[in-house]
Every structure is written in structure tokens, then in C-alpha cells.
Amino acid sequence: MVLNDVPPPSTVDDPVYRTGVLELLGLLAYGEISACERLAEDAKMAPDLRLKVEIAAMASAEFGHFAKLRDHLVAIGEDPFEAMRPFAATFERYHQHTKPSDWLEGLVKAYVGDGLAADFYREIAAYLDAETRELVLETLSGTGHSEFVVEAIRAAIEQDPRLGGRLALWGRRLMGEALSQAQMVVAERDALSTVLVGGVDHPGMDLAAIGRMFTRLTEAHAARMEKLGLAA
Amino acid sequence: MVLNDVPPPSTVDDPVYRTGVLELLGLLAYGEISACERLAEDAKMAPDLRLKVEIAAMASAEFGHFAKLRDHLVAIGEDPFEAMRPFAATFERYHQHTKPSDWLEGLVKAYVGDGLAADFYREIAAYLDAETRELVLETLSGTGHSEFVVEAIRAAIEQDPRLGGRLALWGRRLMGEALSQAQMVVAERDALSTVLVGGVDHPGMDLAAIGRMFTRLTEAHAARMEKLGLAA
């Protein structure tokens, strides 16, 4: 949990906050279902059945996360597909721009994406009302399936050290693309941004705090790359 | 539950029975993971996000079934991937021969395959020891996700009645291909067949009983086709 920079969460009575949370849940839900879809796609490239099963387990966990978010949206009287619709283009663009050219790039993408999503969830959880926060943290709790990736990537680089350079470049591209899509979302969705940066009647992160959040996300990404044996 | 034709289940002390059960669990596990994989593939053809999510839910349920079978195999000291290996070719052949050419064919395949698998599980459960039977019936219990298919297929045929003929033909092909692969498995795997037909020291189905089982499976298939609005 991130405890610095955190003002008291906004109340659910605030209509801008409510809209922002709805957008946030739609964003997360689309992210999960699209991650599930891409992992299923990557599983086809798996060199053996064991690794295929590992990827399928991740895809299935992402589907479980999606189902939780969907059920919550239904429970609060919202149409989950309406809530997700505005974010389809963002994720399709991200995946379009980051098509793995082989199995190892797929693994790195799964690992980096999973980790970045989990970090982001933890960061924003602090700005949410208790119920939404619990949902978002629960959604996060199922990850950690991707630890097998570390072993697979390190073994591959040991066998062919030239891979390290290509995969490091790939990792930087993934992070760059993720940040660029995130920036577009923030620019386009006022209510969602307000959840993070605060509105006239409730506090949020100031620009310096947002800067620090990006620094933390970037540092965590670098740590993950190092764990894979890759230069960030 | 099928109660006719059922002798007392074999004991787990019989080494041929044990081998047969191991083969059976390997067969079921490969079937589940390969169904999961194909459903994920079909999900890409879904015309909208709602239907994509329905198919992803089925894929995720199949993965859950697979995980139960895998965990059981590990618990009884077997390597699940070794147990699955002999059946890879069977399922790859089946899927190779039954590639859906569009979304509707994918739906029919999911529905028909899900139903046939469930019927088969119920049929064989009666011949198994209590622990294995419970596992097999549990594996079965998660299905039923595919009911949305009925609605989708009926709606499509209502819009374009010519579809009915093509999809009916497709359904017959699926059943024919499944039976032909099943027959090859039985012919190749003696121990597995012995679980069903009995060995020197324990009873099983006689040929007439096997005939009646096939009749029941075929009738249930015809009933499913009718439910979809298709001639069997």
C-alpha cells in the first residue's frame, strides 16, 4: 500500500467522483478482459504444454478479475459493457502497438503488464471510497501467476545472451506505450482524472504527487526488468 | 446419472484399472485444456464484447476443470503432463478436422462438444471407484455456461433460415469426428478400454451395453441439435 500523498478518499455522493469511479471500473474491466484475450493468444506460441498451461492459468485469473468487476458494476446498477466501451480503443491501440513477435516477447509483455497493472491498482486504491477500494484490491490479489516468467526469460538469455538486448528494448517499448496510452486516457476523461487529481470540493494528488506516482511506477518497472535479467 | 448396465466399480488395487484411470484422467485433462484453448480462439470471432465475454467465461470454466484434474493427478503422485501426452494427437486431430469457419460454427461446436463431454463423463462415472467418480462428476459440474448459445443460434437462423441447413450439417460432422476419434482412442489404449469393458477379474460393459451407451450419447446429441433448432 502506498501511504504517502494520500488525502481522505472522496465520498460517493459527489457526482463527478461517481462518474470517475464508473470510468475507472470500466477501464479496469476492459483491461482485464483484453489481457485475458491476449494471453490466450500468446498461449498458442508456447513451446510446450506446461508453459501453455501457465499462460492459460494467467488468462483464467484475468477473466476472474474481470468477472468480479463486471458483477460489481451490475450490483451498483450499471451496464458493465457501457462502462467498458469508452476504453476499447485505448486497449486495442496498446495491443496493436505491442504485438509480441515471439513467445519470449509475449512472456515479457505478460509479466511487465501484470506488474504495472498491479502497481497502478495499488496506487489508485488509496484515492477511492472503502467499497471500491476493496474491490480494486481484490481484483489485484489474484496476480502473481507470472513468477514462472522470470525463470523462463533468464533461462532463455543464458542460452542465447543476445536475446537480452532485444528483450530489454521490448520492455522499454511496452512501458513507453503503456504510459502514452495512460496519458491519452487521462487527457480524454475528465471525471476519471478528477478521481486522481481531486476536484473543487475534494482533495487529490497535486502535480508533484502525480510526478512521484509516475516515478514509483517507473522504478517498480525497472526493478521487474532487473528481475528478468534485463536492462530497464 | 446412468443406472442401467452398471456393475460394481473396480477396485483401485487392480494395476490395469489404475493404468486405465490414469489414461482416462489424462484424456479428460487434455480435452479440457484443448477446449479452453479453442474457445479462446473462437472468442476472437465474437461479433461483440458481450458474446466474447460469454465465450471467455466458458474457456475459463474449462481451465478450472483442467486445474482440478491436474491437481488430482499431482496428489496421487502422477505427472499430469505425462498422463496427458498420449492424447495430444487425438485432440489436435479432432480440432484440425473441425475448424469453425465462422462465429456460429464455433458456437455450435462449443455447445455440442460441451454437451457430449458432459454426457460421456456421466456415462463413465458409474464404472469408476468412488474417489475418481467424484472428481469426474465435479469436473462436469461447472458446465452449463453454454446455454446462451441456444439463443444466439436460434436468433441467427430466424434472421437467415438458410443457415439451418449448413449448421445442421456441421453438427453431424462434429459428432462423426468425435466418435471417430473416440474409437481410435479405445482401439489404441487397452487399459483405458478395460475400465469401460471390464477385464478378466472385474466386470464392465458388454458389447451390447457399449452399444446402448453410444445410442444414449447419439440421442442426447440429437436432442441438443433440436434445442438449437437444427436437424440432427
From TrEMBL, chains A, B:
| InterPro entries from the UniProt entry | Ferritin-like (IPR012347), Ferritin-like_SF (IPR009078), Ferritin_actino (IPR059125)
Quote the CDD domains the UniProt record gives.
Ferritin_like
Ferritin-like domain residues: 17-199
Tree of life domain: Bacteria
Instruction: Please state what the protein is called.
Output: Ferritin-like domain-containing protein
Species per Swiss-Prot/TrEMBL record: Aeromicrobium wangtongii
